[in-house]
Amino acid sequence: MMDNNTRHVLECLEEDARISHEEIATLTGLTIDKVDRIVKELEESGIIRKYKTVIDWDLAGDEYVYAIIELKVSLERSIGYQPLVERLYKFPEVRSVRLLSGQYDLSLTVSGKTMKEVAFFVAEKISTLEQVQHTTTHFVLKTYKEDGVILHEQDHVSRLPVTP
To answer: Which stretches make up the HTH asnC-type domain (predicted)?
Structure first.
């Protein structure tokens, strides 16, 4: 069970990975030494897996194509999902792998430079796996919010009034 101090430190880091330990101490009322110890323990235990930056690649001028791939798979009873999942997440194109409830078993988020590149990846690397029975690909047309960060503020659209 996690104590409140640890939870508060994690929440600060989740909101802003660049926040200093001094700022966390101020926000939480902990000493800087205590924050240092908590963060070190969280890193060593694997609770903090990585520090991440959310980048708006469209704004940076280096666009990527993202797709969400839903997989229906067949499994051997004694093995489960783990061997297939490990194979899937080793592909550099795969950004995330999630186990789902419902009609599909797994969801992948993949990226590439073009729709064609992503389509060929799915056709040549994912669909050809023995356990994969069916795939459905959804290309992401626009991302409005990523990891809690709003990427595109609402555009102000001025419309002409409609009168009867």
So the answer is: 7-82
